[in-house]
Amino acid sequence: MDFASSWTHQVPGGALGVAVTTVGLGVGIFTYLEGMSHVEAAYFSVVTGTTIGFGDVGPKTDAGKIATALYAVLVVNVVGALLEPATEILSQFCVDSTVPASSHLEEDSKKER
Question: How far apart are CA 1 and CA 31, in angstroms?
Answer without folding.
Answer: 32
